[in-house]
Amino acid sequence: MEQITIALPSPAAGTTRSLSYLRFGQQGQGPKAYIQASLHADELPGMLVAHHLRTALTQLEQQGQMLGEVVLVPAANPVGLAQTLLGTSQGRFDLRTGQNFNRMFHNLSQDVWQRVQGQLGQDGQANQQLIRAAIRASLADGQRDLAAADELSAQRLALMRLAADADVVLDLHCDCESLLHLYAGTPLWDRVAPLAGLIGAHVALLETESGDDPFDEACSRIWWDIAALAGEQFPIPLACVAVTIELRGFIDVDHATAAKDAAAILDYLRLQGVVAGELSQPVPAACEPTPLAGCMPVAAPAAGLVVYLRELGSTVRAGEPIIDLIDPVSGSVQQLLAPVDGYYFARENRRYVGPGTRLSKVAGKVALRSGPLLSA
Q1: H helices then E strands: how many in the chain?
Q2: Which domain holds residue 46?
Q3: Is the same domain home to 12 and 142?
Q4: Which cofactors does the annotated protein need, by name (predicted)?
Q5: What φ, ψ does residue 233 adopt, rounded to 5°?
Q6: Phi-psi region of 220 (alpha: psi -120 to 50; beta: other; left: phi over 0)
Q7: What are the C-alpha distances in Å from 319 to residues 61, 65, 261, 280, 336?
Q8: Residues 331, 234: one domain?
Q9: In total, how many domains does the chain have?
Q10: Distance between CA 57 and CA 65 in Å, rounded?
């Protein structure tokens, strides 16, 4: 194991932060997997999974079981990790700019296309190597360093440089209260399905462009974007399987659960040829995927006390009451209804909210939304 530290630009005189990552296996040898935890710095289940992965990968490396390279970032957002307000972690948005830490990553598709379009041929493997080299060159361009003068921009660039040329990218997050679920690109489902089965995902939300350039999509969309630009003329493989894994809710931080999740991730790396050895379990069937545009939020129309009427994991029907929103002063009760037929898998963990708060998510089978599809 090699531990490397990247210094970030100072946000103020006398203050610096750094981003640390671990490398297992030999750089540039075999398939590459990139795994990061807590890009939203207050989402901690992934941090514990990374802790268990560190131990397991160290043992596998000592046993000569590394067939490729694994880059593990146990705390992917030192900027957000340092943010607290009155004792409460503020790890989702940068307090200086208001930007979501998992948005505005580099959309490399057009730049990479300009670099490779005159060199593509009929050999898909050669095209893959050419595109990977162009991804690295694009991110190494000195203009990007000049544009990344502040620590948030530099952090985004550092993470992209570590991940964008990987065969597998796993971004570990969690929701407020939820069942385990995934986000991935629609074209990747056949390769993501074994991961969904191994890790026990209840919902898999698929889209080709969710809006605002989240990390996983910034890594994987290059390949289907270039495939579309190349058309039928040149074979372009979907060479990066990037997935956001939502590891249940904020408080689901315990060793038994994290160890099980880590074992499932290692099994997936075995399937992808990154790690040697037998699977710890047969690959279960995956859940049926649904479109991200069919995931319908339920928002609070007013401030009030929240009482949930259905448990997570319920199949609900459109128009069915799922929440009582109570005004404690007037005593009025508004019943909030399921927006579509679907699977009720996530909800807000606060029980008193302001107007506009997204309280619940129902995964429906029909794409109904357009524009930016992710919550703030």
Answers
A1: 9, 20
A2: 2-288
A3: yes
A4: Zn(2+)
A5: -70, -40
A6: alpha
A7: 53, 53, 35, 42, 9
A8: no
A9: 2
A10: 9
One domain, residues 181 and 309: no
DSSP 293: G
Q: What is the pTM of this model?
A: 0.97
Give one DSSP letter per residue of 184-238, joined into a string: EEGGGHHHHHHHHHHHT-SEEEEES--SS--HHHHHHHHHHHHHHHHTTSS----
The string of pLDDT tens digits covering residues 138-176 is 999 999 999 999 999 999 999 999 999 999 999 999 999
CA 342 to chain centre: 23
Asked if 37 and 46 touch (Cβ cutoff 8 Å), the reply is: yes
- Answer yes or no: is 375 within a domain: no
Give 287's DSSP letter. P
Per the DSSP assignment, residues forming a β-bridge with 291 are 206
Q: Give CA separation, 368 vs 262, 272, 289, 340, in Å.
A: 34, 34, 15, 10
In a domain, 373, yes or no: no
In this structure, what token pair is assigned to residue 298?
A: 């339920």
Tell me, yes or no, whether 266 lies in a domain.
yes
Residues 274 and 297 in one domain: no
Task: Determine whether 320 is exposed, middle or buried from the number of CB atoms within 10 Å of its CB (0-12, 13-18, 19+).
Answer: middle
Q: Examine the domain organization and report whether 277 and 300 are in the same domain.
A: no
Please state, as a whole number, how many other Cβ atoms lie within 10 Å of the Cβ of residue 199: 24
Q: How many CB atoms lie within 10 A of CB 309?
A: 13
- Nearest C-alpha neighbor of 361 from the set 350, 342, 353, 371: 342
Round to whole Å and give the CA distance between 368 and 338: 14
Nearest to 166 by CA among 240, 107, 112: 240
Q: Is residue 208 included in any domain, yes or no?
A: yes
CATH at residue 104 = 3.40.630.10
* 184 and 332 together in one domain: no
The pair of structure tokens assigned to 18 is: 């750094």
How many residues does the structure list for the chain?
376
CA angle 209, 213, 215 (to 5 degrees): 110
Question: Which tens digits make up the pLDDT trace of 260-312?
Answer: 999 999 999 999 999 999 999 999 999 999 999 999 999 999 999 999 999 99
pLDDT digit string, tens, across residues 185-194: 999 999 999 9
Element at 279 (helix H, strand E): none
